[in-house]
Amino acid sequence: MVKEIERxxxxxxxxxxxxPISITVGANRIVPTVAIPHPLGNPKxxxxxxxxxxxxxxxxxxxxxxxxxxxxxVFE
Amino acid sequence: xxxxxxxxxxxxQFFGQIGGEDKADIPPQxxxxxxxxxxxxxxxxxxxxxxxxxxxxxxxxxGENVESAAKEVVELIASFNPDxxxxxxxxxxxxxxxxxxxxxxxxxxxxxxxxxxxxxPENPGVDMYKNYAxxxxxxxxxxxxxxxxxxxxxLALKILxxxxxxxxxxxxxxxxxxxxxxxxxxxxxxxxxxMLLKKLKGEEFETEFPxxxxxxxDPQPAIKDMSNAKIAIVTSGGIVPKGNPEKIEASSxxxxxxxxxxxxxxxxxxxxxxxxxxxxxxxxxxxxxxVIPVDVLRDMEKEGVIGELHRYFYTTVGNGTAVASSKMFxxxxxxxxxxxxxxxxxxxxx
Lengths: 76, 350
Hints:
The structure holds two protein chains of two kinds. Chain A contains three helices and three strands, in the order αβαβαβ. By secondary structure, chain A is α/β, with parallel strands linked by helices. Chain B folds into two domains: about 5-170, Response regulator (Rossmann fold), CATH 3.40.50.2300; about 225-350, no CATH class.
């Protein structure tokens, strides 16, 4: 899906936990996330801290979308 | 008679009979002898080999720690002193396929012994790791166990016997990208012209060097002004309104959903859930924002960090779903996203 959206002309950031799969699939902007069943959260944290963590990850994603890349790039 | 060869089998938590998704986070462990498919294989091995041990690891544990998990698994495998390792079959299970492949890579590099596995050709583990294992082509679900096992065992026994393996298509494994020199009757120029003539006549011909399929898409330019950008959410994590109104399948999805989130500041277990059958749904059902960050993007919209959160999100279940289906879904809804003036997409995967 990442590739077809980008092919259609819209920049995409892929937020996922298993980065090697994203690289194989061909995403260009990749942001690694927390865990497979909860990529954008961590049930061990308080709800408040969890939301802070999620905000950080989304900020990273927006930063990726605002960064010019020439090929595949993982935004650690 | 020569001593029996020693086989060690790698399985995930499910085939290793430890449990389902609730056990997918278990670290690597070892057992004497064969379990599950490894036990079923014993009768196929005749007197030529024994399954001396089984190493099991949860798919989520592996997927989240690919390198260190592979290392731990290889240490456990090495403790059985095997002659060959069999991993899977993983069918179209993505995390399991990647785990089998990563184990194959680590085993061939660290222990220098062969690995046999089995997967559906679209499993990402094939492309990532086909150089490290002899992978038998399987169907996309565990219904294919009956066919896959004898194929994998026969291949393993042939490798153990020291017999020379033929071409991938003759031996029943997927090409590993290895070239070997061989003598043939006709020289290359003649074979090439023959192929060309067949092509010109519109006849079938078989290339001797299939081009790798590098389907890459160039990145789109970066967003210049985020504060005016319209951002849409897309996910393969299966988030749907409570009750899954369009009944998106838990695996091998045949459709996607498009749902209105304009009335939501955050998602909760009262209104949304996941339809995905490939990971433990507890955390996503409890807090769907853990898969699609509606709460944070809504805050950012209010603060002016982004221009707008698009009123619809698009969702499907990326669990054993055919590449062709995902392509079709996204090709279709990408046109809607463009028509709706969406500037960028955040796509989340589980």
